[in-house]
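Long-time lurker, first post. I've been practising inverse folding by hand and with some scripts of my own, and I keep getting stuck on stretches where the structure tokens seem ambiguous. Below is the full token string for one chain I'm working on. Before anyone asks, I'm not after the true native sequence, just a reasonable design that respects the backbone. If someone could post their per-position residues I'd love to compare against what I wrote down in my notebook.
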């Protein structure tokens, strides 16, 4: 009996091992066949893809930021004289564009072939992910047409007072640190400022982040962009296996974050309706859209989730990208004190002709604009762009066909640091964007907000947010880099945006 059981167990174990080996062999064959994709099309590659991760380093979460890794691939392709190269995000093949003519075709000229971003979203299981940034097709066109109305010059002028008030609250916080002679982490200060701005201008709420650093808006903002290793791996899986991840119900944002934003939007809309408030801000635009969305969906909760997704992406994008830009700008000004002095001189000169800071006053500051544009050149917050092909596309002047469903990637960081377009790209030089030099920049060589029909809808608001913050701070304070700041700067590997890893610390001096 014992012998029989032993033989049976041995047979079952052998069969199990054979099945496992067959399964692993099948997976290996599948990977090998998939990884032949570029070779069959005679498209050059940077390196041989690896099992599971493709061309992404297995420990990507501990090496460099995604945009920096894509920049390295761009530089390799440029050095080899390639116009595009093939890569793999896991099993997902994607083109990395090197030639600016290809970039122009995909982002603008032949945009109808590349309407989709190719980002993962899941409207059913993760409603916040189905936002203007991620969705495509007719849904994107409809949303963009309606939401772009929130960021016209007239609407920004209307929101200007709220923006300025938040900037003065930031200035008060700087004053407190100056009195105490404390070194400040500019990243923390910038985050509080942009949280308050977005809270006021997008949601019509007072966040008071400087008085209450643990305010829920700030906690949620930091949570959105905080990537643990498990979360980073989940995001990698979702973006490299979009259909499978959607079928499995993978979510990018936790339920607590979803509940918070749905509650904020729902409560704010109810308050507006009960009080018959018609303030011309972003929430009012959502309120106007609410009826249309409910009519289309025949479901009030679905309508609220759709509207919340749009408010969420404007909160997330406006908070993170603007705070990073303000932080990097003050870093460069604290290193290049001559440039900081020149900006301050312009601020003083322009303000001497006006009684107060207004939208038009900010627009008169040309050198300030050059400084902000050079900051965005050197540190584009969104360091790469993606577009997914929606129908087979013949690449002009080649025999190559980009097939439906294939992703294309553009290294904004690589292009912005390409010495062909920007001599001495690591040098911070606002004169690149002077009236004389700006027209010399090649089309599509400067894309901090993207390009083409999917260019960032809130770019004017984002720029104004940064400029107002700079004017209010620089007119009264001088910023000097503290030795606690790690130089050269390292970027956070667990971040889709270009973010300083260890903070940027500055000392404050009062301007006489």
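-- Answer (accepted) --
I ran through it position by position. Result:
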């Amino acid at each position: 009996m014992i012998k029989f059981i032993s033989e049976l167990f041995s047979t079952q174990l052998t069969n199990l091992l054979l099945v496992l080996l067959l399964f692993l062999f099948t997976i290996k064959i599948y990977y090998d066949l998939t990884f032949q994709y570029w070779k069959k099309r005679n498209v050059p590659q940077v390196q041989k893809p690896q099992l599971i991760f493709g061309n992404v380093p297995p420990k990507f979460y501990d090496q460099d930021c995604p945009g920096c890794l894509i920049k390295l691939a761009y530089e390799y392709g440029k050095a080899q004289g390639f116009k595009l190269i093939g890569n793999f995000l896991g099993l997902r093949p994607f083109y990395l564009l090197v030639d600016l003519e290809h970039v122009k075709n995909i982002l603008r000229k032949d945009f109808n072939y590349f309407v989709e971003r190719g980002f993962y979203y899941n409207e059913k299981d993760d409603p916040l992910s189905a936002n203007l940034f991620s969705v495509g097709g007719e849904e994107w066109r409809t949303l963009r047409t309606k939401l772009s109305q929130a960021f016209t010059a007239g609407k920004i002028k209307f929101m200007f007072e709220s923006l300025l008030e938040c900037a003065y609250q930031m200035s008060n916080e700087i004053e407190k640190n100056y009195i105490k002679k404390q070194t400040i982490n500019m990243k923390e200060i910038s985050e509080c400022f942009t949280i308050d701005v977005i809270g006021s201008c997008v949601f019509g709420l007072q966040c008071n982040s400087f008085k209450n650093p643990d305010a829920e808006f700030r906690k949620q903002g930091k949570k959105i962009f905080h990537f643990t290793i498990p979360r980073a791996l989940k995001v990698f899986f979702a973006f490299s296996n979009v259909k499978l991840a959607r079928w499995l119900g993978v979510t990018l944002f936790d339920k607590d974050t979803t509940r918070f934003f749905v509650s904020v939007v729902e409560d704010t809309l109810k308050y507006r309706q009960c009080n018959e408030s018609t303030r011309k801000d972003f929430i009012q635009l959502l309120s106007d859209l609410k009826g249309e969305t409910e009519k289309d969906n025949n479901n009030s909760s679905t309508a609220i989730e759709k509207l919340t997704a749009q408010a969420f992406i404007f909160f997330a994008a406006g908070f993170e990208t603007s705070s990073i830009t303000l932080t990097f700008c003050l870093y460069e000004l604290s290193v290049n004190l001559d440039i900081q002095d020149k900006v301050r001189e312009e601020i003083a000169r322009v303000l001497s002709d006006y009684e107060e800071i207004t939208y038009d006053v900010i627009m008169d500051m040309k050198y300030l604009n050059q400084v902000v544009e050079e900051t965005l050149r050197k540190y584009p917050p969104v360091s790469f762009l993606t577009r997914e092909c929606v129908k087979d596309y013949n690449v002009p002047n080649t025999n190559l066909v980009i097939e439906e469903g294939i992703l294309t990637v553009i290294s904004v960081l690589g292009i912005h640091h390409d010495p062909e377009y920007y001599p001495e790209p690591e040098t911070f030089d606002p004169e690149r964007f002077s009236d004389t030099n700006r027209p010399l920049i090649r089309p599509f060589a400067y894309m901090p907000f993207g390009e083409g029909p999917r260019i960032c809808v809130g770019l004017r608001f984002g720029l104004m947010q940064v400029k107002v913050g700079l004017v209010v701070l620089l007119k009264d304070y001088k910023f000097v880099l503290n030795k606690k700041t790690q130089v050269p700067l390292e970027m956070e590997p667990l971040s889709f945006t270009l973010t300083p890893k260890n903070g940027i610390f500055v000392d404050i001096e009062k301007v006489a």
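A couple of notes from the structure itself: The chain has two domains: 1-34, 37-510. The two ends are 98 Å apart (CA to CA). Happy to go over any region you disagree with.
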